[in-house]
Amino acid sequence: MMERMQKVGTTRTVSTVRDTGGVVTSQVRRTVLPGGLRVVTEQMAGARSATIGVWVDVGSRDETPSLHGASHFLEHLLFKGTHERSALDISVALDAVGGEFNAFTAKEYTCFHARVLDEDLPLAVDVLGDMVTSSLITAEDVEAEREVILDEIAMHDDDPDDVVHNLFAEQAWGATSPLGRSIAGTEESITGLDRARILRFYRKHYRPEHMVVSVAGSLDHATVVRQVRKAFGRRDFLSGEQTPVGPRRTSRRVRVHPGQVEATRPFEQVNVVLGMESYPRDDDRRFALGVLNTALGGGTSSRLFQEIRERRGLAYSVYSFTSHHADAGVVGVSVGCLPSKLDEVLATVRLELARVAADGITDDELVRGKGQLRGGLVLGLEDSASRMIRLGKAELVHDELLEIDEVMAKIDAVTLEEVRTIAADVFARPEILAIVGPA
Amino acid sequence: MMERMQKVGTTRTVSTVRDTGGVVTSQVRRTVLPGGLRVVTEQMAGARSATIGVWVDVGSRDETPSLHGASHFLEHLLFKGTHERSALDISVALDAVGGEFNAFTAKEYTCFHARVLDEDLPLAVDVLGDMVTSSLITAEDVEAEREVILDEIAMHDDDPDDVVHNLFAEQAWGATSPLGRSIAGTEESITGLDRARILRFYRKHYRPEHMVVSVAGSLDHATVVRQVRKAFGRRDFLSGEQTPVGPRRTSRRVRVHPGQVEATRPFEQVNVVLGMESYPRDDDRRFALGVLNTALGGGTSSRLFQEIRERRGLAYSVYSFTSHHADAGVVGVSVGCLPSKLDEVLATVRLELARVAADGITDDELVRGKGQLRGGLVLGLEDSASRMIRLGKAELVHDELLEIDEVMAKIDAVTLEEVRTIAADVFARPEILAIVGPA
Lengths: 439, 439
Description:
2 copies of one chain form a homodimer. By secondary structure, chain A is α+β, with helices and mostly antiparallel strands. Chain A has helices at residues 70-77, 87-95, 121-134, 139-157, 160-173, 187-192, 195-205, 221-231, 286-297, 303-311, 342-359, 363-380, 384-396, 404-412, 416-426, and strands at 11-18, 24-32, 38-44, 49-56, 100-105, 110-117, 211-217, 259-264, 270-277, 317-324, 329-337, 432-437.
């Protein structure tokens, strides 16, 4: 359990894991810097590289309609230059050491990240700190990047999977709600954004108390903290009396809008997403829902894969997914198929959902689903990027950092009865259905 | 250097790497089993997982026109069941332990692979050995999987990137040459394949002397060899006097066909691939070509990214690539843009290619390009999947396994003059140009 009330300037050891011989294989430590900036690191024995993420508590759901796409636009603009570095300088710094360097924007957060050899970590900290605290956001850069983003939107419009998932979100959350809008914005909204509004958005949201630096790999916590303090200390960024802002809370539960929506596109395949409302991110039922999702459509042994692909040959790609926000969630099934198979695909998906809603899953499926989740979790731990993401999300969007053993125990504790109850609850709810394909 | 002439039944240590304290951090060992099956492993200190690949020396370039798509069809069919296991049994085995389990087909090889916790490696070896040696390939499975593949082809047809790269290959190598055809086949060729022909193809190509098992991670070589001998010993597969077949050689150099080809598709973006003939896979110039490719379009600091995206805002995605086969290779630039920008994109790409052909690259770019290749190489070594692929490809398609230090030395040895010579040679050659987009 992560303790939120930690004094500024102090460091706390969150967890220590030892191997059977007593040697420390992983240690998580957390420091709160002035201004409320949190630094969380995980030292991994045997690693030679490190992955750093700078997480900002802002995403597309924080945008008013006229700011639609601003979080993502800003993510692009931060690569364009600071008082000290041009766009080329930023690119050169990490390219020259072979680092992987990128960023992504989601509905509830933005993350800038780099994976580098441990000796290059100070460089990565410095570049990221410079970008986040000292971006210039010139009018010229806004104009050039606007064109790039309009092209990126066109690219998403050519991707059937992006189109159908955006349409599904629009139906589920409502076209006028921030959760229902696409992250990248529309041609109209991007054309309408100007430098002044983006700059205001930047100054409002890129604040130390809304930010987390998470680093995992070959590192020393105190050294990383010193580097972060220097890199993020530019332009008095780490000043003030703020304490870290906790996970996002909204006063009222977001409602899902069941219903069917279709879009005609000149694709060869029809792409379908069919889903129902499920639970918010920190709901205790998420572990049982994870086992259910795995049994239903989480691997090649799952019911949907076996029935739709193996037995009936209806589709190449079929899977189920869960998606969680602070105050709402959905569970769904995604399939792409030839237009001639659409009716049979829909009938088969509905039959499988009805079966699982009526009877739950079998004992074998429960055991297998738990094994699959446990194995995937342990395999992911070898990778410093996965660990960086685990730390960053725990700080930013969860109430706590569950230790691996705790997560394992929660998975192990899931019962057939819990899964049955959840399946009967969720899959009996009204459908949200999005279909994209030729007329 | 890997010694090809190794006696069947013997084991050889190919390389041993120690850290500064003298502790072995990696060891590569190779055993040739009866029938000519090669087992190459790399033991990685500190790993908890292992990745196994079963490589078969067959791909789409081994197909006659009427067999077009057979290698990939066969890859699918091997998951459908053996004398001992149904399709569901195969899926269940690796899903239950959380393993990542998949396969891919290329023009010159097919690979089945799994990443698992070390304790589950015996299971992965057994399942893969069973699939590869004892597939049933029933008529029913052929029919069901045919539908799945037709859907997969439709999915590729909806992916602008796949469409433009397939079109580029068709122009470069010729629509009637095996290298110029798509890996998955066409609706017509897939419809025309029957069980008897696929079964003959399977029996002809899935032979021990054409196969390599490569494994990297937490493992013991002798134990892996014993497991492979048992799993692949089914149905007398490991019998006979064959010795391993060396890398693919062709008697005559494949010719590239310059020229322009366009396809009209109702996409929002125009996708372009512009390239030239370069060098075959084992050509000594590949290291200098790698540095050149990096400087030209290998990262965000590259000339193409800086000029096309950062300075002119013409496109979201732009990069250069090299592609090598046994006897031929190409180098090219890939861009997606809005139709209104196409002329400027093409003019800018051609200008950058002409500049680099005339003047080579700068000293800074040379240093940076080497750093980027070196860093990427070292970062990749933490990952058992990357190491498994390195071992498998070295055995199957290269003449030798270069040790990491040797690769580093080859990169370090690249001179400005070599890069200049290669740029002047390659980028002065006639264009191969593929364009896909709206009318």
